[in-house]
Amino acid sequence: MRFVRFLLFVVLATRVSAQEAKPPADNRYDVLGKMLAPVVNILLAGPKGPNRGSSMTIEVTEVNGRLPAQFKGASLFAAVQNPDKVKLVAPVLGDEVTVCRNGNEVWATPGAKIEFLLGQFKIKPGPSRKSNTPLVLPITAQQAIFLPALFSLNEGGYESVEGVNCRLIEGGLTPELGTAAKAEDFRARFWVGPGYIPRQVEIVRKDFSMRVALRDLIFVPSLPASTWEPPVGVTDIYRCSPEYLERVLFVVMNSLQMKEEDAPWAKAK
After folding, report:
1. Are 221 and 51 in contact (CB under 8 A)?
2. Which terminal residue of the chain, N or C, has fewer Cβ atoms less than 10 Å from its own Cβ?
């Protein structure tokens, strides 16, 4: 409960009134760049900026195509802190499943359900390379500066998201990159609120689409140390090295709100 109160305090102390604030009005590429900058600082750049930690609640509001209908409505809590901490809490198998990297260790609870999920997926990521960032990403901090240039963006006007007026920006990868990545059908939409805070994101491919709402997004110097520790008294814990974090996150994210009878899981064949 102390952690919940801490988050509530930070959110209330830093939130700008939705009625008084205005969404960003500058060039759409600049808006995207400024929206991504604090995220890049935490995921890639390390201690160069004042805020090294972030947390938010993510709700899956729409799913279509080959994605399981059960994903809709799933609410997740995510936290990250540079250089080596990540936490995800998600609804899986009728329970609240937690996956956390704390430095050189990954732990997950309930451990028995994580073991069950790992056994259900016949295709899952292998061990990843060692990384001095919270997650293994395919780009460097220097390359991330040019991320907006990889998109061909259109103006989408302005839309309200949960009572907050947002700038809507949409587009896909540049034709050259889309062809090279075999992702010509990739499209994304960003609803950017006051302070360049993303409020909603939608990803569209030819065979699926997903829209998520981002709530209570905060950037802070650090999160409480207890964030990264298993709950006191819990003994059913799965443990592995950081090289297998991607594998554990993969089976959890592809099992949102699934039940044991909902086989086969996505990617399980």
Report:
1. yes
2. N
